[in-house]
Amino acid sequence: MELKERKISMIGRHLIRIKVLQTLYAYRKTENPDMKVFTKELEMSMKKSYEQYLVILLLLAELRDYANLRITQIQERQIKDEEAWKRLERFANNRVLAQLADNPDLMSIVANEKLSLENYKTSVKEIYKNIIESEFYDVYIKSDDSYQADKNFVRTLLLNVVAETESLFDSFEESSIFMNDDADNVVSMVEKTVKWFSESSEYGGDILPMFGDAETHDFGFNLFVKAVNMWDEINPYIDKNLKNWIQERVAEMDIIIMQLAVTEIIAYKEIPIPVSLNEYIEIAKWYSTENSGSFINGILYKVIEDLKKDGKIQKIGRGLIIKK
């Protein structure tokens, strides 16, 4: 199945919802906020997530180059340590990393975005060292020399080393305040990109676009604007169902998550209610308190019942689907 048919993109609606939540939280915490300023920040936040995706792909290609450099350095010494450079050959000859290094789409996008690894050289060396010293690398160099083994190795190093390298993500945050809380999402999309690579493709496969289509791009901005504009309309429903709870005593993030969830349920008639609920309950588990997921689920259930009685929720098409 071609990438265009799947409409897969690096930034999907789940990540967009998180970005909108972060922007809405900042908006609510700002005195006299400017809508234009915050919509620009939302745009920049998503752009930086995509840049992070591209940088990690570029870093993978750089790791292969670094392996080749280390082999050359060892070979050029007066006393050659053949065992040492032989141990690095599988890394240097990894087919998937070679496809990435030669991928014209990746290099074209990186050039257009004016990205480089200049600020990540220390991380490249650290990641390389941790890979070479790992147990999974020993398993890899003893495994069959196959494309699938190469791919499995790259996916493993992504999840076990790259994702755990704090210095890399510290560098991301230093380069931009917008590169935060994206590590898991970005690494996951890089891993999927590698997973879809094929030996039969000269350059491996497609590099994910930032957005699959204009509708996905617009979803975040429209959701943010609607959440701001509908706040006063929705808040009484939430306030009513808090009952013995006082809004000031409820985690502020919980209130914002519920406002955003209800905004989506009302404004997006084609999105099934269970889809919206599941998304925001899952987000609450990561971005609020330990018990926020179950708490928000209980409150939203009652809010939705009240909204239905008042005719505020009108679903159409796919939105009428009961189960996700």
Structure, explained:
It is a single chain. The chain has 324 residues and is mainly alpha-helical. It has helices at residues 3-6, 13-29, 35-75, 82-92, 95-102, 104-112, 121-132, 135-142, 147-160, 166-175, 183-195, 214-229, 231-241, 252-267, 273-287, 292-309. It has two domains: 3-195, no CATH class; 230-320, Orthogonal Bundle (N-utilizing Substance Protein B Homolog, Chain A), CATH 1.10.940. It contains 16 helices and no strands. Helix 3 packs antiparallel against helix 4 (82-92) and helix 13 (231-241) packs across helix 14. The longest helix has 41 residues, at 35-75.
In short:
With 324 residues, the chain is mostly helical. Helix content is 69%, strand content 0%. The N terminus is likely disordered.
Mean pLDDT: 89
Low-confidence stretches are 1-6
What is the general shape?
A: elongated
- Rounded to the nearest angstrom, the distance between the terminal CA atoms is 23 Å
Number of strands: 0
> SSE order, as H and E?
HHHHHHHHHHHHHHHH
Helix % is 55-70%
Strand content: under 5%
Radius of gyration based on Cα positions: 23 Å
**Tally of distinct domains:** 2
Sheet with most strands: none
Secondary-structure class: mainly alpha
Number of helices: 16
